[in-house]
Amino acid sequence: MLDLKKLHYFITVANEASVTNAAKKLNMTQPPLSHQIKVLEKELGVELMHKVGRNIELTSAGAILHEQGKEILESINILEKKLQDVHNGTAGILSIGSATSWGAPFLSEQVSIFNERYPQVQFRFYDDMQHSILSLLEKRVVDLSIVFPPFNHKLYNYIAMPKEPLIAVMRKKWDTAPLKKTTTFEELADRPLIINMKAEEHLTAYYKNSEIKPNIVCVHDDVRSMLLLAKTGLGIALIPKAANWVKYEENDMVYKIVDRPTSQINPHIIWLKKYKLSNVADKFLKLIMAE
Amino acid sequence: MLDLKKLHYFITVANEASVTNAAKKLNMTQPPLSHQIKVLEKELGVELMHKVGRNIELTSAGAILHEQGKEILESINILEKKLQDVHNGTAGILSIGSATSWGAPFLSEQVSIFNERYPQVQFRFYDDMQHSILSLLEKRVVDLSIVFPPFNHKLYNYIAMPKEPLIAVMRKKWDTAPLKKTTTFEELADRPLIINMKAEEHLTAYYKNSEIKPNIVCVHDDVRSMLLLAKTGLGIALIPKAANWVKYEENDMVYKIVDRPTSQINPHIIWLKKYKLSNVADKFLKLIMAE
DNA sequence: CCGTGTTACGTATTGCGTAACTATA
DNA sequence: TATAGTTACGCAATACGTAACACGG
């Protein structure tokens, strides 16, 4: 097997067209360098250079090794640098699962900052139901996931993200109190609601001991679809404030914060305890915690 | 600098996903292999793999090194093989100068055989005047040249190729003796001749002490042009028999051997004594001498 | 002879195997 | 307790420097 050290020696000699000068560049004495070239020739079973008068001249094999060898050394240098970057978490792929499209928006800002600082990191988001996302973690397809409680605290490490209020998105015709900027579950109870599955559980729990039954007209896990449905006038969409990047530029739409702590949703970033985090993921989490 | 031996170790371990199995494949014991991987990690400053339970698992940096490292090792293997071939003279470039297009035809058969046997060798022909060709040899642009005597026997090694008769190519109208298959300089003397520069010297020498003066209508160094001129009926082209690959498929053309030993031309392959021949050139010469 | 590259030899480093140890399922 | 990987140590091979040699302009 070719030895890169000797290859490097040879290429330096070929560049300098002189063993003595090459030895200086390599911070070594001339005789062992000369010897190493001979050894390299023996190892390859090939003449690489020979003295012609006082100078040195490459054979055709030597010329080929000179050209291609340079490329190989170069590609190895690039590879080494890449490895360092990946190791430092400043390059590579960061895969994040998010429990339905409800999750991703909470990270959009941090992703943006991280990308600006480490443009060599590629993000990959996997949207799915919460239980599927957990299995993606288990299969190590994703490094991190954004989920909503409850989840098993024994299996996962987690960071709780800032709580996020729900907002109610509706056409004006559904707005029974146009002067108020907020609303409540009680106010909303009799009007048609468009909610996601998680919120359905919330509401069911919330109204458990009450006589009021919410009027759920549609359950959908995709925020954009929910907003579209709201826009058609089907009902009132309850979505996390952070997910409200799709603002319909129409006067006819009304956005109200649902004014009740229990209505806030509580995204968590989780990852498996039993596996060591990738370095990129680690670096990303540090960024999040620094905020 | 990355060490290819260790890289090879690492890749084997990564392929096997086991140090023990890899050690078997590498015909070594397991502990030093494990140790070398650790050393490699230290040299790179990067974690490549870690135990997870009883098994081993690549880090993302390790996965990258696995992929790219394989490619690098592969390209090095290919390079090594190529170097062997070039060294054996079974691959590479063989540059041959030929003193005008008169030269190349003498080698066409050998070139063809050589190419069939060693298809990785590329031939490059350089056609020019004899003195230019000699300077191409001196500049080491070409390895070998085909020339015609005289040349300096002290500077060049040479192989004399079989002597080659001239043939006279003419339209029927110039054929004064249709029954004879050969002709002579005397017969041709009064008819218009199309010859090359070398032949001009020959003829001048030949007729030096004679009263006959040859009727030279055109001097041209390119065989194909000479044949074309003959075909137009301008005169009689004198060309080496070997160069007669351009046969005009017309009944109106006549081809006659010039029947006189002195009219034979005498191609030589020459190369510089003071430089060592390239291995391809050497191999090619061996082929020629074997015939 | 001066500036090349080569040969010869002693020393420090590296790399392997064996043996003892550690950890996980 | 069996089967993986790790640590410890001694010996053999390798690569370097120094010194002496060879050769061409």
Would you mind describing this structure in some detail?
The structure is a homodimer of 291-residue chains. With 291 residues, the first copy, chain A, is of the alpha/beta class. The first copy, chain A, has three domains: 4-87, Winged helix-like DNA-binding domain superfamily/Winged helix DNA-binding domain (Arc Repressor Mutant, subunit A, Orthogonal Bundle); 89-163 and 267-290, D-Maltodextrin-Binding Protein, domain 2 (3-Layer(aba) Sandwich), CATH 3.40.190.10; 166-263, D-Maltodextrin-Binding Protein, domain 2 (3-Layer(aba) Sandwich), CATH 3.40.190. In chain A, 41% of the residues lie in helices and 23% in strands. The first copy, chain A, contains ten helices and 13 strands. Chain A has helices spanning 4-16, 19-25, 30-44, 60-88, 108-117, 130-138, 185-188, 197-206, 223-232, 279-290, and strands at residues 49-52, 55-58, 92-99, 121-128, 144-147, 156-160, 166-171, 182-183, 192-195, 215-219, 236-240, 253-258, 268-272. A six-stranded mixed β-sheet of chain A has the order 8-12-7-11-9-10. A five-stranded mixed β-sheet of chain A has the order 4-3-5-13-6, sandwiched between helices. In chain A, strands 1-2 form a two-stranded antiparallel sheet. In chain A, strand 3 (92-99), helix 5 (108-117) and strand 4 form a beta-alpha-beta unit. In chain A, helix 1 (4-16) crosses helix 3 and helix 1 (4-16) crosses helix 4.
